[in-house]
Amino acid sequence: MVNSLPPFDFRGWRVLVAGGSRGIGRSIALGFAQAGAAVSICARGAAALEETRAQIAAHGVVAHALPTDLAQPEAIQAWVAGAADALGGIDVLVNNASGYGFHDEDEDWLANFNVDLMAAVRASRAALPHLAGSAHPCILHTSSISALRPRPGGSSYAALKAALSHYTTSQAQALAPRRIRVNAIAPGSIEFPCGLWDQCRKDDPTRYAEVRAKIPFGRYGTPEEVAHAALFLASPWAGWITGQTLVVDGGQLLAG
């Protein structure tokens, strides 16, 4: 549960989370809300989006949500503009959405290109004028440990996450003179209701067990554990950190 989050104080901050209705994005959004930030989220599914928006608002903060297809540039512009207006500005942008293309087909490559990479580029571009007016501007991207090692399947997903990690370093260098920090988080295998590993547990328990056995901690990670890292990287405690990709995987990469 998100009530275990570190005691960061984000009162007065304005945070946008793309892909914020479920899983990691939802936990990041709720973590910031619990710490006092006004939060805007977007995703395609209106029902889950509204449910999460209500949970954000229950923390007594401004909560904004807009159904958004992050593969569409105009939709991203509309969400960022609406969020900045509702929240009164932007301090933190979290690009968390994924196209979840795991096959070697054109549509998988394009889905990952448009959502994992270009949505982050476009949202950053739209948010930049607002971030420039913030006292503590920060951009966070959700990459993956898949970006850091070869894998037998899901090459399109891994390749675009690797591109996102590289974009993080280039963007950090470009925005450093404007004192805008840019970092990424690379989660390992994270399990949550209706997520990929939850579905794998039901559909392919053998593979589920094999992957879990390769994680030194002996379990899958939780979205809240990724949210902990996001709040740290956005906070003043990480004020001298930029251009980095922080692995959050319980040692999964150590096992190869």
Describe the structure.
This is 3-oxoacyl-ACP reductase. GO terms for molecular function: oxidoreductase activity. Pfam families: adh_short_C2. Belongs to the short-chain dehydrogenases/reductases (SDR) family. The protein has helices spanning 23-34, 46-57, 73-87, 106-131, 155-175, 196-203, 205-213, 223-234; strands at residues 14-18, 38-43, 63-67, 92-95, 138-142, 181-187, 245-248. With 256 residues, it is of the alpha/beta class. The chain has a single domain, classed as NAD(P)-binding Rossmann-like Domain (Rossmann fold). It has a seven-stranded parallel sheet, with helices on both faces. Helix 3 packs parallel to helix 4 (106-131). The longest helix has 26 residues, at 106-131. The model has no long low-confidence stretch (mean pLDDT 93).
Which helices and strands appear, and what pairs or packs with what?
Layout: E1 14-18, H1 23-34, E2 38-43, H2 46-57, E3 63-67, H3 73-87, E4 92-95, H4 106-131, E5 138-142, H5 155-175, E6 181-187, H6 196-203, H7 205-213, H8 223-234, E7 245-248
Parallel strand pairs: 1-2, 1-4, 2-3, 4-5, 5-6, 6-7
The CATH homologous superfamily: NAD(P)-binding Rossmann-like Domain
- Basic shape: globular
Strand fraction equals 5-15%
Q: How are the strands ordered across the major sheet?
A: 3-2-1-4-5-6-7
The CATH class name reads: Alpha Beta
Computed over alpha carbons, the radius of gyration is 17 Å
Mean pLDDT: 93
Q: Got a strand count?
A: 7
| CATH architecture heading | 3-Layer(aba) Sandwich
- How do the helices and strands follow one another from N- to C-terminus? EHEHEHEHEHEHHHE
Taken together, the total number of domains comes to 1
Structural class: alpha/beta
Find the CATH topology. Answer: Rossmann fold
Distance between the termini: 29 Å
Q: What does the main sheet amount to?
A: 7 strands, parallel
* Helix share, percent: 40-55%
Uncertain stretches: none
Organism: Rhodanobacter lindaniclasticus
Pfam families: adh_short_C2 (PF13561)
Keywords: Oxidoreductase
Protein name: 3-oxoacyl-ACP reductase
